[in-house]
């Protein structure tokens, strides 16, 4: 179930592809090649699902409602970024949203750490990648007013 939820959020990436608009943007020299995003996100979504499952195993929804709802909130914010950025081409709005996503991931990591250290550690690479993505989003916003 957690894999399904995570990859449902990932499916937004398939609905809103970068395309010509993104190709035409001015980008920083440290912009990663397009092929890297698929493997990175596949790994991160899998790790997120395992983390949620580890927390869920410690009492299910009855006992872990708050950490799991926090997880679902960040997952919803994750799914929202792609249509804002690639669908609507709202780079500034997407940056504001990714800041909220970063805060939600940090809150999820903190909530998970009280239940399972392993679950919390599984979210660290996700937080690191979203930190990088936020820096890239901000830079693209500044380069393409």
- Radius of gyration from CA coordinates: 16 Å
Q: Given the structure, what is the number of helices?
A: 6
- What is the helix fraction of residues, given as a range? over 70%
The biggest sheet, with number of strands, parallel, antiparallel or mixed sense and barrel status, is: none
SSE arrangement, N to C: HHHHHH
What's the count of strands? 0
Present the secondary structure layout:
Elements (H helix, E strand, L loop, with lengths): L1 H14 L3 H6 L12 H20 L3 H28 L3 H23 L3 H27 L2
Question: What does this protein structure show overall?
Answer:
With 145 residues, the chain is mostly helical. 81% of the residues lie in helices and 0% in strands. It has six helices and no strands. The chain has helices at residues 2-15, 19-24, 37-56, 60-87, 91-113, 117-143. The chain is elongated and about 50 Å long.
Highlighted features:
about 140 residues; mainly alpha
Summarize the structure.
The protein has 6 helices and no strands. It has 145 residues and is mostly helical.
